[in-house]
Design a protein that fits this description.
The chain has three helices and six strands; from the N terminus they run αβββαβββα. The protein is of the alpha+beta class. It has one domain: 2-Layer Sandwich (NE0471 N-terminal domain-like), CATH 3.30.2020. Strands 1-2-3 form a three-stranded antiparallel beta sheet, with no helix packed on it. Strands 4-5-6 form a three-stranded antiparallel beta sheet. The longest helix has 7 residues. The N terminus is likely disordered.
């Protein structure tokens, strides 16, 4: 079974914003992954922590996430999210 086929049954069930514009995503298999808008270097040089207040987060039927007006496709979530906050994917 390919990685893509095995991911087809893994869907987000909950999502929340963390400081520094990081999205914490919980999947139906119990896994928690993180998706960041900024790289570690960009976060390091910022003088203050970023956070969003009053987010509207919706998990769509296809597994994608709508965060306020931003649509995050399922494939982006699966390819760019990490299991640890310190990890980065290029």
């Amino acid at each position: 079974m390919s990685e893509r086929e095995s991911n087809e049954h893994v869907k987000p069930i909950a999502a929340e914003m963390l400081p520094n514009l990081r999205l914490r995503i919980t999947f139906n298999n119990g896994e928690v992954r993180y998706l960041s808008k900024f790289s570690t270097v960009e976060l390091f040089i910022q003088p203050l922590a970023y956070t969003w207040i009053g987010n509207e987060i919706e998990i769509l039927e296809d597994g994608s996430i709508r965060l306020n007006d931003l649509h995050i496709p399922y494939h982006v979530i699966m390819e760019q999210s990490t299991s640890y906050l310190a990890e980065e994917k290029s």
